[in-house]
Design a protein that fits this description.
globular; alpha+beta; 10 helices; 6 strands; four-stranded mixed sheet; two-stranded antiparallel ribbon; about 50% helix; Four Helix Bundle (Hemerythrin (Met), subunit A)
């Protein structure tokens, strides 16, 4: 399954960035809710393990999800307790070893296999795509904190597709009705290839860099902090609150809040 290899590659890119970073930065707060890099790694590591249990141990997955719901500290508190023996380099190496294990599992899985999860069942392809998206999105606060502009690859197309597929979800999670059909997307991939989605339209249209579209739908950038061209009322409304991830509705960051540090660490 190609999505498994894309997840592996994105995880390796983040590992390479952190492998050479000063250990002191792992406890510094980032621009995302003041999460530290250690917290980012805990979160990614924990849910990669849960994705592995989807394929190997559904009973353990179900038990762990119940325990999270009962934990006084909620999801983040449970993640921290679960991985309390790891931080810094040890956490980085443990996360790396596990993301390779998870990628190996999904590389051999039936993409259409239905897997248990906290909410509705999902396909194996959807599960590993979600792990890729989470790694890419949470990786952004790490790149930003370290003052590094990420050089994206065409594997971001997985996130573009997720953004397209969750057009309706953005409104459903807010108990709203989409104000119209999904706008026409004309996005330029990191390689220069042009990707198009939706019915052709000059009145409702979003054009620009594919990775900037990914930044908006994962809410790591405000639309105002990108160079995307947005035409039409529906396109404008969607880009003001696009959300490709599960859970309660989240408000995108305010303009200027999420950016690459000007003074690299």
């Amino acid at each position: 399954m190609q999505q498994a290899e894309d997840f592996r590659a994105e995880s390796e890119a983040l590992f390479a960035l952190l492998q050479s970073a000063d250990i002191a930065v792992f406890d510094q707060p980032t621009q995302f809710k003041c999460w530290t890099i250690n917290m980012v790694l805990e979160h990614l590591h924990f849910w990669n393990m849960m994705a592995g249990f989807q394929l190997t141990d559904e009973d353990r997955l179900a038990q762990t999800l119940r325990e999270i719901g009962e934990h006084d500290g909620g999801m983040r508190g449970y993640e921290a307790d679960y991985l309390e023996s790891f931080s810094g380099r040890d956490l980085l190496e443990s996360w790396r070893a596990n993301f390779h294990q998870t990628a190996d599992l999904y590389a051999q899985a039936d993409p259409k296999a239905r897997l248990k999860w906290a909410g509705p069942e999902m396909s194996a392809r959807s599960s590993i795509t979600a792990r890729l998206m989470e790694t890419w999105a949470h990786g952004q606060e790490v790149y930003d904190h370290l003052g590094v502009v990420r050089q994206n690859a065409d594997r971001v197309r997985n996130i573009v597709v997720l953004g397209v597929n969750t057009f309706g979800w953005t409104y459903k999670t807010r108990q709203e009705t989409p104000p119209g059909p999904m706008p026409h997307l004309v996005l330029t991939a990191p390689s220069g290839e042009v990707w198009t989605y939706g019915e052709a339209s000059e009145g409702e249209r979003i054009t620009g860099a594919a990775d900037e579209f990914c930044q908006v739908v994962t809410q790591v950038r405000n639309i105002a902090d990108t160079s995307l061209s947005v035409t039409g009322a529906v396109a404008t409304d969607w880009m003001s609150k696009a959300q490709c991830f599960a859970g309660a509705p989240e408000t995108p960051p305010a303009p200027g809040l999420r950016c690459t540090r000007q003074m690299p660490i």
